[in-house]
Amino acid sequence: MSASSLVVDGVEVWVEGEGAHTVVMIHGWPDTHRLWNGQVAHLLAAFPGQMRCVRFTLPGFDLSQPARPMGLQGLVDLFARIVDTVSPGEPVTLMLHDWGCVFGYEYLAQHPQRVARLVAVDIGDHNSGALVRALTAKAKLGVFAYQAWLALAWAVGRWLNGSLGDAMTRRMARLMRCPVPPHAMGWQMNYPYWVQWTRALGGYHRAAAVAPQCPTLYTYGKRKPFQFQSPRWLEKMQSGAGNQVQALSAGHWVMLDQPAAFNHIVTDWLSSQLTQGRP
User: Fold this and answer.
1) Residues 80, 28, 58, CA angle at the centre, nearest 5°?
2) Structure confidence by residue, pLDDT tens digits, 102-151
3) All structural domains of the chain
4) How far is CA 160 from CA 47, 97, 152, 165, 190, in A?
5) pTM of the model
6) Strand pairing report for 51-56 and 11-18
């Protein structure tokens, strides 16, 4: 297996494997590129000589680097430069989770010609009225509580006390049963919540509606207090040509809670896509 790295706009990008098909993986909170370790190993074994896996840690999520909050357009532009660097001649497969979905969906909306297919995990129509209507009052309160807490942790860490911001972040992560080790997370990772709720750096409220036009595999966990996709959106996605929707007995980190099942679903779906001759 070949592996290399390059730097794009100060972000280290890892490229593993070789072949005509490129999968670009984007994580969410409070993860790094290591979230996808299992998927990289599985895909390169399942598609030897056919696939390249590309991943990176979101700006600001690498605790060895200074805090780097970014607005939505800045992230989309960064993704565009990464994709154009690693696969200038062919569209890629996007594999997204959590905030990676939010940001990746916007990249797809702005650059649809650069994405051949989409694998999205546990975040669907995050900005739709249908989702708001589907959430119970208790669920809405739960969403507000954890997101506002993490936004506050960002502000505390940035302007008051970094250690206290870290402690607040790790406390919420424990409550959410986050699988990331406490030492590997910090207040710097919380800026998406700060941007979301304060509309700093342009906010994220102008993101396009989540309506992928490319073949899409959407997987989500059923064992959570609330969902981040509406039933209406699931039905629409299921009916799309080449699409597949799969619920698993897992929490938010589907690929870690049910790695064998998740990898099997992804591999089967990608095999069907490649067999059909899609780029």
Assistant:
1) 45
2) 999 999 999 999 999 999 999 999 999 999 999 999 999 999 999 999 99
3) 3-128+207-275 (3.40.50.1820)
4) 49, 30, 11, 8, 15
5) 0.96
6) antiparallel
pLDDT of res. 278 = 54
Q: Tell me, what's the pLDDT at 276? A: 74
3-state secondary structure of 63: coil
Report DSSP state, residue 242. T
Length of the chain equals: 279
Dist. CA 46–CA 271, nearest whole Å: 9
- Token pair for residue 28? 């969410």
Burial status of residue 134 (CB atoms within 10 A of its CB: 0-12, 13-18, 19 or more): middle
* Cα–Cα dist 170/186, whole Å: 7
Among 122, 123, 91, which residue's Cα sits nearest to residue 108?
91
Residue with tokens 């990464």: 82
C-alpha 75/C-alpha 80 separation (Å) is: 9
CA dihedral 14, 17, 102, 197 (to 10 degrees): -20
* Model pLDDT for residues 165-211, shown as the tens digit of each residue: 999 999 999 999 999 999 999 999 999 999 999 999 999 999 999 99
